[in-house]
Amino acid sequence: MPTFEELVAEGEAVPTEGWDFSWFTGRATEQRPSWGYAGLLAARMATAGAALDLQTGGGEVLASIPVAPPVLAATESWPPNLAIARRNLAKFGATVAHVGDTDDLPFPDGHFDLVVSRHPVAVRWDEVHRVLRPGGTYLSQAVGAGSVRELTDFLMGPRPVDPGRSPVRTAADAEAAGLEVVDLRQEALRVEFHDIAAVVHFLRKVIWIVPGFTAAAYRDRLLELHGFIERHGPFVAHSQRLLVEARRR
Q1: DSSP-derived 3-state class of residue 242
Q2: What pLDDT sits at residue 202?
Q3: Is the CB of residue 98 less than 8 Å from the CB of residue 79?
Q4: What's the confidence (pLDDT) of residue 19?
Q5: Which of 139, 148, 195, 221 places its Cα 20 to 30 Å from the Cα of 203?
Q6: Can you spell out the DSSP letters for 184-210?
Q7: How do strand 28-30 and strand 179-193 relate by DSSP bridges?
Q8: Which residue range or ranges hold the Methyltransferase type domain (predicted)?
Q9: Where exactly are the structural domains of the chain?
């Protein structure tokens, strides 16, 4: 059986580029939302004329759609992901722009009839409204308030939950920008970490769970968590997910 040090080193060595989570197979699990975002995305894209995917990561989710609209664009803020996204989306002839998560979007007013985003870091609702055509749709699966907070609190101590990611605030911000919220759902989903390597890699990849995380800085807490997993089995947390669909009036 690998030692604590070997597991930590393994978790630190796995590349973090892109949003491919296949490395976690057998080491961590996450329950999926009942609404099936990939299926909703595929259905919307099949009928769109021009679509935009915000904060696409490596484009892995968008690349899974069977039919792309005639005009397809994506944005991504992290430079290492840009080449991955451009490679994954080349089959659709999509353009991938380097855009910060809170920057203005480099597209004309009313350019898209569909804007989508999976797990956005931040949402510029005013910019979503601007680039949507009247009657156009915004579809997103977002990370809700207090996602995986059990892991955050274990490593950092109890932390307040950000109300900015609550369903109430999400709906209010969308409507303040001139969008009509037509669907808003929330689910808490079981997450299991089966070894400390999975915890280390997850925290390196999903950087907002423990901001500034390094294995060295949190070694003592990781060692305690390693002992817990060895004695009691998987560490259980819960991810929070929101499904948001809104239309430009």
Answers
A1: strand
A2: 97
A3: yes
A4: 73
A5: 139
A6: EEEEEEEEEE-SHHHHHHHHHHSTTSS
A7: antiparallel
A8: 52-138
A9: 4-248
